[in-house]
Amino acid sequence: MNLSNMYLPSLPPKAFLTFFGFLLLCHESEVHLLSMANPREKASEDHPLTSDSPSVPLRIFLSSISPQSPQLPRKGVSCEDLMPEALDGFADVPEFSQTLIRAALVLALQRAGCSQHAETLVLDLYKELGQVDSDDLLFVMAGSTNTTHSPGQRKSSVALQFNLDQLAQTPVHHCRGLLPVNGSLLYGKAHKVYRGFPAASKACHRLGDSCAGVASNDSSSFYVVERKGSYFLPRHGATSWLHQCRRLGRGRRSTAEDCDNETEEKIYLILDWIPWVGGLYSFATSVYFAKLNCLELAHQRAMSCAIDIGHDLLLFATGGASGVLGMGIYAGLKPGLKTAVRAMLRYLREEVHSFPVPSNYSGPLTTF
């Protein structure tokens, strides 16, 4: 194995800046960093690289994340409590969301002092995505954590709440009015395409509850998007219009007993006081509880970590869960899990600022 090619993952310059900026941030926060003078020598001494271990740069990176004191097992929560298997029904969460949840829990476990459990999840990611994509995902996700967000960067929670509601598949009624949503694009089956917004707005109103809203790829084409299977994904400079509807009560598949879990609540209350760990755990459980139709809990967890983890990352976790196809369109390639992750990474690095009109956008394409 050529270690020289593994010293640094295949990240573009902006990703490197994010990664090393993150390391500097950790240093300023009195987080111990390993010496980077000779990483290959250091890695070979402390963590021999084998076929069943994380890559050299990832080993060094994870080792640089020192746990908070006291470590998690001393605070009444075990390392196993942060593993995906501790979440009943985790297998029912969409594959794309499972992948992002595992990545979030890798970082949470490492910061909580559960390095062996973190490494186990890294190997799971390697099986799903391969080494390069997994390393890139963890580097970029860590770079998004604890990043300072100015008030102007704080985006509306409307799109995120819509995605969570769509995951729970709760029915709607009494829809009226279109609400502008900036910085996000509404995806789904196009009912019809219009050349002007007023015509699209009237068409959405006629559709009633089955209309999710209106989306525009440019200033002249306005898509009326059907509600079933629709979702938001972040897009620089985009504007969509969400059909405002009332959501019915908690979904049929969920009961109060399903959502009230004393053990999980205890874990959350303990982790919420630990920097990094609480936010990453909230990120993971917001998607999980939405899938269980526990919308109140899902919204609570999502809102508590949207600033710390990143609004756009949460949009990908919830919207991408419903629409890996859309993520494939975003990348301009054949859709799939790896393609979706790469598309998300490219967006988070802000290398892609435009979004072409999907050539295979479903629904009629005749304009009126």
Helix fraction, binned, reads 40-55%
Percentage beta strand: 5-15%
Please work out how many helical segments DSSP would assign.
Answer: 15
Which stretches of 5+ consecutive residues score pLDDT under 50?
Answer: 1-51, 150-154, 351-368
The structural class is alpha+beta
Write a structural description.
The structure is a single chain. With 368 residues, the protein is an alpha+beta fold.
Summarize the model shown.
This protein is α+β, with helices and mostly antiparallel strands and about 375 residues long. It has 15 helices and seven strands.
Provide key terms for this protein:
two-stranded antiparallel sheet; 5-stranded antiparallel β-sheet; single chain; alpha+beta; 7 strands; 368 residues; globular
Topology at a glance:
Elements: H1 13-28, H2 39-46, H3 56-63, H4 95-111, H5 115-129, H6 131-144, H7 158-168, E1 172-173, E2 178-187, E3 190-194, H8 197-207, E4 211-216, E5 222-226, E6 231-243, E7 246-247, H9 256-259, H10 262-271, H11 277-291, H12 295-309, H13 311-322, H14 324-331, H15 337-348
Antiparallel strand pairs: 1-7, 2-6, 3-5, 4-5, 4-6
